[in-house]
Amino acid sequence: MAATLLLVDDEPGLREAVTAYLEDSGFEVTAVPSGEAALDYLQHHVPDLIITDVMMPQMDGYAFLEQVRQQPHLNHIPIVFLTARGMKRDRIQGYDAGCDAYLSKPFDPDELVAIINNLLRRQAAARDDAEPNLASLAQQIAELRAMLLQDGGRPKPPPSIQLDLTPREASVLQLVVQGLMNKEIASQLNTSVRNIEKYVSRLFVKTGTSSRTELVRFALENHLAH
């Protein structure tokens, strides 16, 4: 499945040109004209990578980046800055703010594609390194599930809560509650680990949680899983 990218730029011409090039390079691209529109999009979607202009009206790239990094379900996303300001101090400010790469306009689109591919490879490697920690987390989730479901400590009747979960999100939630790791869930559902990460991130958004243990507790206490 193609990697999903979010492009944020207030220049229509550049937005269209970069979108077309990235789509020709095999990516799935959503383009928006402002940081505000990007934050609205991110309330319901979790892309694999974000590309954003720095100099934008109302909310510039630095303010947008700060908003993204403050949200637990989004702060892992690689972010590339595009800007006409290529001075050394501007690049330093970008990296200090938390961007992963900084590309000055005008730029070679092939260089942008190479940066994107490199960041996605690094993210995949970091994900593999995290697997041992996920195993420990799976044990914690299993213990939490047993505690909440034991006799005398069953969850309270569910409140009037409406969650618009897709069938696949509901399936992922059930498997998370069972203590399965992303790689195991991906195998059971015959999809990629990247897709499972997206589903889990969407579940965080929809349930207002920020970790797998919080998600499991929320699901059990509200009878969303068993």
Write down how many β-strands occur, each being a DSSP E stretch of 2 or more residues. Answer: 5
For this structure, the CATH topology of the largest domain is Rossmann fold
How many discrete structural domains? Answer: 2
Largest sheet, described in full?
5 strands, parallel
- Would you identify the CATH H-level superfamily of the largest domain? Response regulator
Structure explained in plain terms:
The protein is an alpha/beta fold and 226 residues long. The chain folds into 2 domains: 125 residues, 3-Layer(aba) Sandwich (Rossmann fold); 91 residues, Winged helix-like DNA-binding domain superfamily/Winged helix DNA-binding domain (Arc Repressor Mutant, subunit A, Orthogonal Bundle), CATH 1.10.10.10. Helices cover 55% and strands 11% of the residues. The chain has 10 helices and 5 strands, in the order E-H-E-H-E-H-E-H-E-H-H-H-H-H-H. Strands 2-1-3-4-5 form a 5-stranded parallel beta sheet, with helices on both faces. Helix 8 crosses helix 9. The protein is elongated. The two termini are 30 Å apart.
Write the topology of this structure.
Blueprint: E1 4-8, H1 12-24, E2 28-32, H2 35-42, E3 49-53, H3 61-69, E4 79-83, H4 88-97, E5 101-104, H5 109-129, H6 131-149, H7 167-177, H8 182-189, H9 193-207, H10 212-221
Parallel strand pairs: 1-2, 1-3, 3-4, 4-5
Helix pairs in contact: 2-3, 6-10, 7-9, 8-9
